[in-house]
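Example record

The entry below shows one chain as it appears in the dataset: sequence first, then structure tokens.
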Amino acid sequence: MDKPHIIYILSDEHRGQAMGHMGDPNVQTPWMDRLSGQGASFSRAYANCPICTPSRGTIFSGRHAHAGPVTGFFDVFKPTAPSTATELRKAGYRTAYFGKWHCGIVRDQVPASVAEDATRRFEGGSRNRTPECFRAGFQDWFGFENLNQHFNSSIYELHNPDPTPLEGYETDALTDKAIDYLHQYEGEQPLFLVLSVTPPHFPLVAPDEWERFDPGELQVRANFHDSPEMRDNLATYYAMIENLDWNIGRLNECLQNQPGFENTLQVYFSDHGDFMGSHGMFNMKEHPHEESVRIPAIFNWPGHIPEQGPVNGLFSLVDLMATTLGLVGSEVPVWSQGQDFSPLLRGEDFNPPADVLLEMCGSPRWNLGMPDWRGFVGERWKYAFIENRIELLFDLDNDPFEQHNLARENPEECARQRQRLLELLRETRDPYWDVLIEHGVTCDDPVTDVSANPARGLAYLHE
């Protein structure tokens, strides 16, 4: 078959429950819903490591963070590591990357044009230039590392040593850049293009015209800790998602009117979720709960992926590379740890995995409430082992909002799940956590938090 163009639309911190076709009663996402209805959307898709850098390493390597090229928040994508981009280049693709990367920060790679800038145009964020060797094989580069400056973003274009400012709101500006590139693309090679935007990641800010929600009227989740602050945050989070959905629409209208892009596979997904008021937290992920680890995963390819809407199957980001390669008829490399879900997406017989490995690997540890952990989720049970030997056990059938930790009440089931976790860690070549689980010791003394701003912590950390 002719190779399709491939478009990845990658957002940051969009939890999988927050879309219209997934039942959210507040947010309107007509373009996400259309792509799902005309294709497929995994009803239970997971980020294996719910924090930016290692999650992105998993996305583009098909490897779990503990066994991949990006093993923590302060790591980089190793220069010689194979990736989705390098595999598709072997299949004849041209590759292009737009937006947030966050897998190539080298501390001294800040040009004088940024370090000595007096205009405040490059103020805030990590304005480091991504060295070519840490770009995972992407050829046409229009990226940045980690800014969190939605109205003051900038990108490094191709090999230019100095950044180019973006005007306006980041999601709008990056979509403009990607559309311009598509209009000008005349290559004979099929294109693999990634559009990676920061919103709805914090800071919670959106253009005024998108702030349409009355916080007091929002319908909230059963585990939402209600307060005016939480509602205000959730209202803006939804506004950022609706702006993103509108930009997905703009990109699709471009594709529909651009000769040569009739045969295009699109995938929309996020690198992790956010609690956004659930369990009393916002602007936070990093933990095993559904709001943190559940993500969108929408596949759309007219004529090749039947119209299915939400589909079952425990899909996760480690499967994304294998599934993409499988869909376009390329061989899945032997080093991939993901499973190829392309038969399921084509409507063929398929046995999905019984469980998905979850982890926090290389936490940035901004505070004491950000431990490393290992865990997994199956159809019914979710289990996690935290580095301080706290265990979590949730029965998702009977407690979908994870409000009742059964680890102490049901020690037999907890032991079974712990054993399954050990099996998964060995299968995926985790180098050390079997030692912590089977032979770890207990800390002698309670921890004293000396921070001037003691960490907000989820309740389970204080058990």
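Notes for this example: The mean pLDDT is 96. The CA atoms of residues 104 and 135 lie 7 Å apart.
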